[in-house]
Design a protein that fits this description.
Blueprint: E1 17-28, E2 31-42, E3 46-50, H1 57-64, E4 72-77, E5 80-81, H2 86-92, E6 94-96, H3 109-117, H4 125-130, H5 133-153, H6 168-180, E7 186-190, H7 198-213, E8 217-221, H8 225-231, E9 234-239, E10 242-247, H9 249-253, H10 256-263, H11 273-317, H12 325-350
Parallel strand pairs: 3-8, 3-9, 6-7, 7-8
Antiparallel strand pairs: 1-2, 1-4, 4-5, 9-10
Helix pairs in contact: 3-5, 3-6, 5-6
Bound molecules: adenosine-5'-triphosphate.
InterPro entries: AAA+_ATPase, ABC_AA/LPS_Transport, ABC_transporter-like_ATP-bd, BCA_ABC_TP_C, P-loop_NTPase
Region (Disordered): 278-351
Organism: Streptomyces virginiae
Length: 351
């Protein structure tokens, strides 16, 4: 990783592609969570990934980081296709944080960062067990690097605290420091400001700019639109697993399809709209066929109903006529009377 100096100078930006996802598709049984998504992240860029709940953003992240093996498509990092294995992806240079914080809660802040460092330490098992000079030197270097990262996120004074005792916003920052410990060239952040207050969100924004200025490309999922449009050079919007649009912040935030997707309003050419229309047409057809089949029966049912009504009318006109229901009604009335009596008597006894 580059030195820790942070600047706001982005003139050194190049168009070197760091991440290239091509036609990534992920199916879970009959559900296509991600459908043919292409995405590039270039060196020096902060790219945002937005979309309504369930749009497939986290599933896409999981495909990029080897947690899921995409059903179709490929993911390359700096021109090399990545093997779908999380530790190999980390070794290659991609680090990530999770939507639900995943820290080692009973370990210290420093230990959590050291865990993130292990892919970059070369000392083997025997060296570690025997704690030879090589191991001690490597351990000291790792600790120095971890402390540097803690200073970077402003948590050096809490190095010996247990992770579980940190406030929520600091836990999120610690997760970022742990990801940075693997010296990535690209970091994927899954909702880094979730649960943060506005001040913490602002600080997170500064932290991400600083990470970019260290030479690490960033791909970030967020629901906070103000945060994303302020932060990102480019934004891609997923809807129902498909990439709806990709462009600069102003292009994306002004796009009425994006607004409609967030408000749940259907729009022309909406991803999945053709499939929905097909299913709706098939359902309407099936309903119409069922109705047509049921029609003669319905007509037949209608006649006796008319007769019954006529009979009932006759009965109304002949109140003296015996009815089978009458004794049952009498019995019910008697039973009601009995139960009322018994309740009353019980209440009386109780009193
Ligand atoms: N392991 C899984 N098995 C089956 N379905 C899954 C699995 N993971 C995700 N899904 C489904 O895939 C779809 C996309 O989910 P995903 O979590 O990727 O969306 P998201 O855009 O990250 O949503 P959110 O913004 O709410 O986090 C959803 O319908 C979800 O239920």
């Amino acid at each position: 990783m580059n030195d820790m100096t942070t600047t706001t100078d982005t003139t050194t930006k190049t168009k070197t592609t760091v991440l290239e996802a091509k036609g990534v598709t992920m199916r879970f049984g009959g559900l296509t969570a991600v459908k043919g998504v292409d995405l590039q992240v270039n060196a020096g860029e902060i790219v945002g990934l937005i979309g309504p709940n369930g749009a497939g953003k986290t599933t896409f992240f999981n495909c990029l980081t080897g947690l899921y093996v995409p059903t179709e498509g490929s993911v390359s990092y700096k021109g090399k296709v990545l093997p779908p294995k999380p530790h190999r992806v980390t070794e290659a240079g991609i680090a990530r944080t999770f939507q639900n914080i995943r820290l080692f809660h009973n370990m210290t802040v420093m230990e959590n960062v050291l865990v993130g460092r292990h892919t970059r330490t070369k000392e083997g098992l025997w060296s570690a067990l025997l704690r030879g000079p090589g191991f001690k030197k490597a351990e000291a270097a790792s600790e120095a690097r971890a402390m540097e990262l803690l200073e970077f996120i402003g948590l050096e004074h809490k190095a010996e605290h247990l992770a579980k005792n940190l406030p929520y916003g600091e836990q999120r920052k610690l997760e970022i420091a742990r990801a940075l410990a693997s010296d990535p060239g690209l970091i994927l952040l899954d909702e880094p400001t979730a649960g943060m207050n506005p001040q913490e969100t602002r600080a997170a924004e500064e932290l991400i700019f600083a990470i970019r200025d260290m030479g690490i490309a960033v791909l970030v999922i967020e629901h906070d639109m103000r945060f994303i449009f302020n932060l990102c050079d480019r934004v891609a919007c997923l809807v129902q697993g498909e990439k709806l649009i990709e462009g600069t912040a102003s292009e994306v935030q002004g796009d009425e399809r994006v607004i409609a997707a967030y408000l749940g309003t259907p729009f022309e050419g909406e991803p999945g709209a053709a499939e929905v229309a097909e299913v709706e047409a098939a359902e309407a057809h099936a309903e119409a066929a069922a109705e047509a089949e049921a029609e003669p029966e319905a007509a037949a049912d209608a006649e006796p109903e008319t007769e019954t009504e006529a009979e009932a009318a006759d009965e109304d006109e002949a109140p003296a006529a015996d009815s089978d229901d009458a004794p049952a009604a009498d019995a019910e009335a008697e039973a009601d009377a009995d139960s009322t009596t018994s309740t009353t008597s019980t209440e009386g006894e109780a009193k």
